[in-house]
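Me: I hope this is not a bother. Any chance you could explain this protein sequence and its structure tokens? It all follows right here:
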Amino acid sequence: MNFAQINAYIELTKPRVVSLILLTAVVGMLLAAPWIPWQPLFYGTLGIGLTASSAAVINQLIDRHIDAKMGRTQNRPLPSGKTTPTQAIIFATILGLAGMADLFIFVNAITAWLTFATLIGYALIYTVFLKRATPQNIVIGGLAGATPPLLGWTAVTGNLDYASLLLVLIIFTWTPPHFWALAVARYDEYKKAEIPMLPVTHGIPFTLLCTLLYTLLMIASSLLPYVVGMSGLFYFITSSILNAVFLYWVIQLYRTHDRVIAMKTFYYSIFYLMLLFIMLLIDHYL
């Protein structure tokens, strides 16, 4: 196997997406207890990462024909021919089985089952059905993508807690404005691929109104950790700054319908979620 083939396999796992998933999962672990042993931190991160990577490969396998029609995705390993569907199936199976075995053996059953449910929710329910069936695909399917901090929390504690569900809520309400900004920017590509994203089915103005409303929900959700005493003043101040910038970009997008601003909003949304969870973690140790 040469470097190009290795790189293609890595690309199949969507490493940037998985990195963000692992960040939120690790923050969930570290927030769950004042001190945690290295085993759940290491094995939990490994198992969640392997399973998330498996889901990413399955997603690309199922979407390979759609990806071939879109400029943003046509150079991915499967539509470009760098890997074959058979190779992708084998790779996804190995990753998924390794991840589940790791979680069952070295972490705990509840984390393993929740991670398995997340894999099924994203790789099959969202990718196979929701993405092609309804413009609410991102809203409903977003629940699967919102679970990593919950998985991290249960890896340490072995049980569910309201605080972990607050973290899930933040990502759940963040997902629609994050993806709808991209869908507006890539409107022509989604229309060509016949994917019923909200801008395609209901128009860009309605989508941007929904984006603005969900951003307000996201801001309210992001402040709940401070409201319930889960975090302190540092988090409240830094999250408020991050929220103000996010709202600025969304309002600009709502007013202008500019696709360049849509991409800037999309990129900022990634930066926002990453920093929000880092600020929550810093506040925890302050």
In short: Residues 259-285 form the longest helix (27 residues).
